[in-house]
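User: tokens in, sequence out, please.
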């Protein structure tokens, strides 16, 4: 059993020690068919030598210009197989078609076919695969024919049977007769090359010229050097693999040979035949079938593949080591030690050899290092590493434990002790290291503090600063002997930062804490944190700083989420040396554990979540060229109805009506096509800060309110240089209804309206008051009328009472007169009777006196006056009205009328008038005449109603 275990352990350690080929990768930018809206296959590539790339694509002519792309459909609706830029024209070839493209007045490419210039326009199924410019003539090559265009006419070139591809090498043009030797085109005649007959069993795929003038020929069977008329095999590294991969194209770039294959991507060799790199789909290449390779003026290559287009920066200052198949994992730390690279990842510790080209090769896992690695550090010529289960010395590629405390995060030299020491933060304690037999080993743990801390810094006063991943920042004050912690201070809002802040860094010997969008520095005089704003002007985006690492004397890497900056900081000056955008290179740092490690003066390692990248500052400084220019190419304006208009950029002032308030800005740059270009923009009045870095070359602002605007645009080059800002001013005018004139009208209208309202309210109030007055008046009138009626009623009642009283008096008076007269009449009758009976016995004198008195009593006018007065009072001037209306009436008539009105019968009236009833009737008769009454008119009713 023990034997089996020992065998298994031996096999395990043997496998972990097997070196793996380090998979380095150049910077590759992918252009997918979906992104380009093109076909998959890209058969040929060329350039105008400036900033445009032309690609023969399945769908047509693809034009790449900085951040813009455009596809022109194939004129014959067939696949474009070849493209060439010659004397300001783009020549293309396809099935039974070839010609050229030229820009029109709007810079749109327009196609002109050359096929009509043929004497026999029938091309007999010819498909143009190569276009060559040689000695003023343009040759269009197909396997069946070769056509020559001299600028005026097109002619067929005679050839000895079918031939392979044309190859322009220096001033010569070569091809191969199918199944035959190599041929050279001389004065439109193909001449066989001596001693090339051996190629009859091979297919010549590519021919390039080496720096010494010799030719390198790539065929289906191998590589051949042709020099001084002799041919020899060039046996390069990985020769068999290269040949099996099927060579399809070759180019020479500087001191490198780039070979494109059908099966395994691209091989990069130095000119001694050493393999530098095999670039394939494991290194971000979209496809392993290489159809075309084109070198640009910067020494980099465009690659047309069976699916997509890639731009490979062979001279990039940044080389990535990322291969998921090698299990490297996320890189947290690294160190260059004795010309070997040691890398700490979440999978363990790997080491790399450094070859003659400076590349790191042969990735090897150090035995027993599997697991999380927090730091690798060179101390006094020895390597130390903090792992998940402790801290180790790396010696002879083996681990030797120097601390048993789990989780060695970092080690810092202790400056304040007479005895040299190192202080380490771990998962549990603060560990003190001291030298024992020239090895730094765990000596003891600091007392009075037990807490995991990832971040550890020591300031110039001997204070220990710790960052706990959850609880925040602590300031510890140790005793003089560095044996225990005498004071623990929890950093909180009383010191100027939030309690949940947990990151801390050291910058220019100052303790720094990132807090929201600010960087806070510790002020030892006031024992608090104050804003450190010296770097703010260099940042192009907002957001918290996630890492600050030392990059050499006075140099610091400062990492934000979307940008990485290298500063040189002195007491009285700050200089920004470089700026990197992770998105520009397509890599991602480990979130929360961002780290950039200085390997040597020029090389810096960037820890990635899937490997690492090496940045060469020397190459980066050499790559710095003239500042890239940025231009606004067009500005489109959309009105509220959706109509689009384009602004004239030659004008200095742009004033837009209010309804044209949706603006789209488009731009371009003179930066070399291929490298991803990133832009920032800001619209003053809308945007408070710059946008994030973005690759699209346009932005739209919709429904902008009226106002004055200033649009700013800037870009960043691959070397980190910012372009100068491009400003654009424009105004969106206010609608007519909010202009000053309109406001004046509104003011007048409002004032008028207010006046009208005032007048209306006044009138309404007046009407109300008038109505109230009217109602009050009517009420008063009604009350008055009621009062008057009441008064009248009272008066009438009074008058009625008076009338009734007068009538009663009149009746009483009348009855009194009636009784008196009746009595007097009775007395008179009796007296006359006695006189008659007594005769002379009754003295005549006394009798006559008595009768005279009686007659006076009966004819007493005073009684009538009283009667008349009472009667008028009771009957409203009855006598007066009768006298006025009937002046012919006598007093006796008036009396009769009064008695008739009192509704007295004739027998009752007779005594009052001292006449007989017949006398009353006679008077009634006379009265009717005097009143002119008709026979049917009742006298009594007439008198009573009068």
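Assistant: Sequence out:
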């Amino acid at each position: 059993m023990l034997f089996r275990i020992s065998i298994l352990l031996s096999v395990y350690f043997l496998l972990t020690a097997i070196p793996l080929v380090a998979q380095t990768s150049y910077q590759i930018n992918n252009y997918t068919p979906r992104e380009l809206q093109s076909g998959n296959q890209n058969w040929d590539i060329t350039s105008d030598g400036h900033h445009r790339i032309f690609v023969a694509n399945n769908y047509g002519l693809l034009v790449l210009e900085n951040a813009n792309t455009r596809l022109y459909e194939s004129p014959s609706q067939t696949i474009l197989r070849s493209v060439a830029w010659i004397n300001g024209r783009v020549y293309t070839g396809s099935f039974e078609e070839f010609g050229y493209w030229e820009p029109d007045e709007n810079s749109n490419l327009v196609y002109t076919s050359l096929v009509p210039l043929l004497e026999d326009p029938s091309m007999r199924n010819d498909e143009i695969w190569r276009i060559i410019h040689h000695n003023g003539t343009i040759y269009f090559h197909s396997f069946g024919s070769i056509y020559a265009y001299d600028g005026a006419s097109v002619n067929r070139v005679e050839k000895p049977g079918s031939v392979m591809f044309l190859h322009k090498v220096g001033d010569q043009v070569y091809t191969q007769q199918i199944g035959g030797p190599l041929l050279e085109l001389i004065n439109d005649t193909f001449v066989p090359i001596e001693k090339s007959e051996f190629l009859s069993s091979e297919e010549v795929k590519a021919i390039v010229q080496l720096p010494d003038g010799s030719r390198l020929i790539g065929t289906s069977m191998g590589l051949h050097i042709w020099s001084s008329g002799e041919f020899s095999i060039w046996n390069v590294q990985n020769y068999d693999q290269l040949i099996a991969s099927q060579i399809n194209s070759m180019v020479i770039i500087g001191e490198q040979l780039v070979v494109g294959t059908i099966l395994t991507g691209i091989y990069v060799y130095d000119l001694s035949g050493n393999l530098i790199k095999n670039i394939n789909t494991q290194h971000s290449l979209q496809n392993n079938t290489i159809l075309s390779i084109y070198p640009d003026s910067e020494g980099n290559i465009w690659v047309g593949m069976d699916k997509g287009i890639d731009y490979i920066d062979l001279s990039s200052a940044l080389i990535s080591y990322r291969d998921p198949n090698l299990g490297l994992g996320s890189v947290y730390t690294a160190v260059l030690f004795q010309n070997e690279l040691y890398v700490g990842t979440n999978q363990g510790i790997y080491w790399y050899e450094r070859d003659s080209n400076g590349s790191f090769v042969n990735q090897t896992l150090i035995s027993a290092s599997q697991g999380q690695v927090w730091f690798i550090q060179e101390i006094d010529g020895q390597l130390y590493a903090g792992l998940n289960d402790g801290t180790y010395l790396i010696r002879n590629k083996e681990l030797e434990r120097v601390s048993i405390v789990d989780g060695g995060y970092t080690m810092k030299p202790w400056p304040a002790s007479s005895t040299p020491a190192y202080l380490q933060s771990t998962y549990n304690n603060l560990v003190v290291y001291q030298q024992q037999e020239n090895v730094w080993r765990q000596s003891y743990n600091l007392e009075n503090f037990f807490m995991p801390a990832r971040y550890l810094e020591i300031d110039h006063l001997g204070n220990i600063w710790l960052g706990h991943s959850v609880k925040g920042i602590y300031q510890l004050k140790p005793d003089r002997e560095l044996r225990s912690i005498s004071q623990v201070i929890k950093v909180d809002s009383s010191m100027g930062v939030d309690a949940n802040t947990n990151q801390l860094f050291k910058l220019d010997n100052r303790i720094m804490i990132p807090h929201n969008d600010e960087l806070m520095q510790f002020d030892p005089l006031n024992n608090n944190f104050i804003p450190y704003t010296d770097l703010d002007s260099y940042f192009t985006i907002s957001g918290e700083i996630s890492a600050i690492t030392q990059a050499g004397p006075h140099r610091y890497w400062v990492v934000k989420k979307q940008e990485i900056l290298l500063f040189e900081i002195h007491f009285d000056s700050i200089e920004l040396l470089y700026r990197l955008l992770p998105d520009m290179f397509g890599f991602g740092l480990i979130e929360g554990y961002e780290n950039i490690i200085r390997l040597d003066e020029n090389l810096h390692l960037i820890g990635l979540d899937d490997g690492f990248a090496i940045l060469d500052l020397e190459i980066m400084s050499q790559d710095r060229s003239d500042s890239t220019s940025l231009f606004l190419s067009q500005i489109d304006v959309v009105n509220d109805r959706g109509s689009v208009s384009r602004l004239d950029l030659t004008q200095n002032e742009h004033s837009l009506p209010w309804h044209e308030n949706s603006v789209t800005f488009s731009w371009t740059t003179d930066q070399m096509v291929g490298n991803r270009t990133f832009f920032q923009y800001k619209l003053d009045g809308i945007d408070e800060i710059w946008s994030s870095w973005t690759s699209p070359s346009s932005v739209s602002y919709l429904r902008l309110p009226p106002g004055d605007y200033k649009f700013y645009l800037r870009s960043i080059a691959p070397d980190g240089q910012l372009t100068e800002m491009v400003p654009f001013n424009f105004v969106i005018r206010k609608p007519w209804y909010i202009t000053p004139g309109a406001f004046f009208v509104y003011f007048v209208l409002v004032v008028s309206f207010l006046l009208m309202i005032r007048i209306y309210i006044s009138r309404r109030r007046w009407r109300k008051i008038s109505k109230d007055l009217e109602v009050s008046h009517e009420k008063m009138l009604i009350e008055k009328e009621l009062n008057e009626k009441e008064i009248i009623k009272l008066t009438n009642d009074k008058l009625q009472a008076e009338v009734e009283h007068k009538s009663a008096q009149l009746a009483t008076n009348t009855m009194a007169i009636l009784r008196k007269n009746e009595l007097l009449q009775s007395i008179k009758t009796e007296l006359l009777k006695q006189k008659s009976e007594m005769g002379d016995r009754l003295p005549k004198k006394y009798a006559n006196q008595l009768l005279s008195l009686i007659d006076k009593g009966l004819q007493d006018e005073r009684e009538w006056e009283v009667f008349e007065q009472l009667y008028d009072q009771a009957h409203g001037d009855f006598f007066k009205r009768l006298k006025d209306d009937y002046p012919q009436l006598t007093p006796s008539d008036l009396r009769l009328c009064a008695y008739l009105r009192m509704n007295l019968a004739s027998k009752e009236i007779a005594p009052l008038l001292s006449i007989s009833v017949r006398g009353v009737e006679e008077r009634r008769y006379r009265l009717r005449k005097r009143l002119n009454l008709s026979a049917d008119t009742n006298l009594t009713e007439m008198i009573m109603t009068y």
